[in-house]
Amino acid sequence: MKLELICHTPDVETLIATAMLTTTSGAEPSTLYKRLKNYPQKVRTAVGRLELQHGSILEHNRFTWTLEATEGEVLRIILENRFFTCTPIGESKWLMSANLRTILEYSEKERAGFGDTLVDSVRKLAPSLKALRERQK
């Protein structure tokens, strides 16, 4: 299978940190987001404290890829996690989308192979995902 990330939510970890802090702060989410964009260390600290029990926070984003795979391979992916969205766009070519929670949950079930491919595809955009994934081992 060949996977290529083609678009994503901008500033994904800032958005996740904003979602986290909205529950404990009296500030408006837009104000928090603007503040956090100027302080990447605060974003890393907040996201670094995230626990999977609060996985809904990881749903505040979207990643979209092109995927070259057989129907059987795509079926296996969506049967493993129903929150992947896959649309055929050509022979053995698919448009696939998911959020970080879906990626993390899938990669927990499939530690090697496609699970690692998914995590690698978003590693630069969501570097804290690797740390969260490591804590779940």
Please provide a written account of the structure.
The chain has seven helices and four strands. It is α+β, with helices and mostly antiparallel strands. It has a single domain (2-135), classed as 2-Layer Sandwich (Gyrase A, domain 2), CATH 3.30.1360. The protein has a four-stranded antiparallel sheet. The protein is elongated.
| Lateral arrangement of strands in the main beta sheet | 1-2-4-3
Structural class: alpha+beta
Approximate strand percentage: 15-25%
Query: Helix and strand string, N-terminal first?
Result: EHHHEHEEHHH
- CATH overall fold name: Gyrase A, domain 2
Low-confidence region ranges: none
Based on CA atoms alone, the radius of gyration comes out at: 16 Å
The averaged pLDDT comes out at 88
Subunit organisation of the chains: single chain
- Classified by CATH, the class is Alpha Beta
Sheet with most strands: 4 strands, antiparallel
Kindly give the count of domains.
Answer: 1
Shape: elongated
Distance between the termini: 25 Å
Number of helices: 7
CATH architecture descriptor name: 2-Layer Sandwich
Assign a percent range to the helix content.
40-55%
Count of DSSP E strands?
A: 4
